[in-house]
Each structure stands twice: as structure tokens, then as C-alpha cells.
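Render this sequence as a predicted structure.
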Amino acid sequence: MRERAFSVLLLLPIVILFLNSCGLRYTEENEMNDSFEAANLLFTGKVLKGSISSGNDVDFYNLKLKNPDRYHEKIIADIRLKNQDGINYELRVFNKKRLLKQVIKKSSEIALVNMMFNTEDLKKGKIFLVVSSVGKEISKVPSRYSLNVNIRSMNKEEEGEPDDAAVFAIPLVKEEKENVIRGYFNPDSNPMNKDKIEEDWYKYKVTYADIQSRDKSIKVNLNLTAVPDVDSEIAIFDDLGYLIRTGDSFGVGEKERLLNILLKEGTYYVRVRSEQPGQENVNIPYVLKIKNVENNNTESEPNDNYPMANLINFSEEKKGYFNPIGDIDWFRVNVYDVNPQILTVKAEPTAYIDYRIKLFSAANELIVSVDDRGEDEGEIIKNIGVGPGVYYIKLENKNQKKDVPQNQYSLTVYKNEWNNEEEYELNNDFNSANSFYLGTLKKGYITPVGDVDFYRFQLEVEKTVRFEISPSVLLDLYIEVYDSEGNLLNKIDSKGEGMGEEGDINLDSGIYFVKVGSNNKNENSRDFYILRIYPKE
């Protein structure tokens, strides 16, 4: 019997060593630890077991670091507070007596997975953790909890809390032409913010060395990876705190991005957060990437109103995105030619996009609006006559609530010198009618849908006048002839869709107007028509 007992005693240290190696080591809270001055020591990597004995009980712990020389200048701490009672616990982190982070949560676990500390502050005993309950009454006394802190050296590609405001932003480190950082949507709310939403802020610098373009700027894309259970949001601000752009196009568990953001030399701040409080994922991090855009034929955001319009050169294909959802893009063209010019604005078909194009004068007065086609189809403004000046193009997705910020569109503006054989828009009424010389031709377009074209001619003597118009695909064209007072004299409209028209009218000398239109109000010109007016001998 004695030999068996002696054997057990010999095995006991081995069993204890085995249990310690399995992570079952822990220390107990030592009351009274209700102030900074009376705080218990809490060593990293070792579980501490404590209890809340009443609604007024507050437990203070001074975080200590073993072997501090093993770590870099900054460390990342993973802090876990667990309890079995499911009461409202509050965990606060202090540097001396300055509050760094506060979490209030009714859960079996509170986690702060990315707290950043200076190694020197830990060596000097400046970091404190404070545990308490919320409310003066708790259902079970005492309420038991465990507290554990694990640490590692911080690397340059991860966030560190607290980074809840621009003044605490984590600098982004550039690797070639890309910045990458990893962070967590944790905790699920922040009582220190007005809207209670936890935020992560990053500082992004554009230096003179980064800039290679003539306008002393760069374009960047900001990409934020998807995280389960979180509806993420990304935003970028200038150094004075003015919002440049917000991306919140998608939903829970989906990525976000901001594309073609134009930045000049200076400091910018990027904010990452959930769309609403209560969203958290302590296991899967997000990854934020900021990458330079090499393609110079892309739009530059923000260009959401006409003073911020991008310059687009004639015959240049400009690529862009309706990003974020609801985005509107403005472009500017400069016409220097003294002679009359014809503009054509064309947006190529793009999946899930229903374009609307508007053309404005320099005074922001609408010249023409086109919204003829549907989703997955292109849109075009044809044959708009312009003189010297600045003109603005507003391009938008008609369905602004549809999520298509990843689909790239293409916009091109063409300019040609006007000649007498073309119509000169706008010529939509008597006052704007184009002059027409008998015996000549006019090439015109019925665009946008519902467009009508007016022409004016003069007859010196009484004659029979011939009116002819060529077919135009999908259009049922007609010709109306008016006297100088605007009275309808005759309508030539005997044929159907896809066919031309012709007719003779006997007219006295005088001034007359001709109106060309289509009976099919749901279609516009796929191609041009040719109008011919001449006196019969």
C-alpha cells in the first residue's frame, strides 16, 4: 500500500505538468481590486478566473508582459472575457487612466481581437483591464468569469485598436503600387461613438514620388473583402475631414469597393465600418487594398456634378463605373471651332445598365435628354448642333437602386463640322426651323424618341412642290406642311413603318414650314432619313 501511495506521489508532478501543458493553468482574482491602485497583476497567456460579487463590483487588472524583449515595438493583444451567466458585462481598456476601448455586451464572450499596445507601456505597467457588470442587479451572485490575454508582435499589414477616429488612424504601408491591411469588425458596437458603430481608420499618403501624371494626381481603387454576418461600408476623406466618397452598394457578407478615386499629393483617411451596430466577426478578418489605377482612359471620381466634370476628348473612349450604387457621372467637352459643329454622344451597351444621357450648356441649361433604350442596351445623342463653348454630359443609370457598381461602361463623344446637307439640332419647333433651299437634300435623325424636325423654305412664285423622304428602319415617317402663320396645309402620310413618303402640293409664293416626325412614338432613328423638296416643272 505504501509503495502504491509513493508511486502516486511520484506521478503527481508529471500530471500537474501535463495539465499545465494543456492550457489549464489559471490564477484567481484577489479582492479587493476595485481601483487602479489596487489592481491585480494579469500576465499574458495565463487565464485568470474572477467574479462579480454585486452590481457595484468593479475588478481592475494591470496587464504584465513576460519576456518583453521577445516582441517588437508594438504588440497585438487578443483579449477574451468569458462568462456562463449571460449578463451584461463591460470590459474597458486603459492606458494609465485614459480610456482606450469600451465594450458592453450581453453574451457568454466579449472579444477584443486586435488591441494594439506599445511594448514599453506594458513594461512600465501602464495598461489596465477593467471588468464590471452593467446595472446594479445581477441574477446570480457571484457571477463567475474568466479573462485571458494572448499577444503577438504586430506586423505592418494589420490594424491595431483603438483606431476609432482619424486622429488614431493606422498608417498604411505601401508595397510597390498597392497598400494592404487586415482588420476585424470587432467589437460589434462602440459606446464611445455617437451612432454606436465600431470604426477602423487608416491614414493614406500620396507623395510627390507617387505622382506621374501631368495634372499631378493619381487614381486609386479601394477594395474591401467580404466578411460573413457584416454589411460593410468604406469611405475616404481628405485631410480636413471632408467626405470624398462612400461605398455601401452591397449587403451582408458582400464586398465593397470605390473605383477611380482621383487624389492629389496629400494625406487622406479611409474609414471601414459596418453599416449598422450589432455586426461582428472575430474569426474572419477583412482585407483592405488600395491600388493605383494605371489606365488613363478611365473616369476620375468624384465627378458627381457639373463643376467636377471630367474632361473628355473627342473620339476618346472613356471607361467608368456607376460606383457606388446611385452614382452619377459628369463629363465636359470643349468646342473651340468657330464654324458650327455636330456632336454625337454614345454610351455602349453594358449589362444591367439602363442609361440616361443629358447634354447641358455651360450655364447648366438642359439642351437635350435621351432615354430611348432599355436595360442592357446602349444610348445615343445624335446630331446636336453646337457653337464654340463648354458643354456638359450627365450620364446615369436610370435604375439607381440596382447594384451594378462592378460593371464598366464606355462613353465616347464625336465632333464633326456641320454642312448644309445635314439638319442642325435643335430644330424642334417653328422658331428653331433649319433653312432649306429648294432642290437640295437634308439628312436628319428622329432622335430622341418623340423628336420632330422643322425646316423652313421660301417659294418665289406659285408652283407645285414635290416632297420626298427616304425610309428609316422601324419608323413610320410623315411630312406636314405649314404656312407662315403655322397653319397646317397638308400631311403626307400614306405608307407604313419602314417605308418612305412622297407627295405633291400646289403652293402660292411665300414662306413655308415642313415638319418631319414618326407615328411610331416608341422608336427613334437607327439610321438617318433624307428629305428632298423641289419644285416640279
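Summary. Residues 2-21 form the longest helix (20 residues). Residues 102 and 378 are 53 Å apart (CA to CA).
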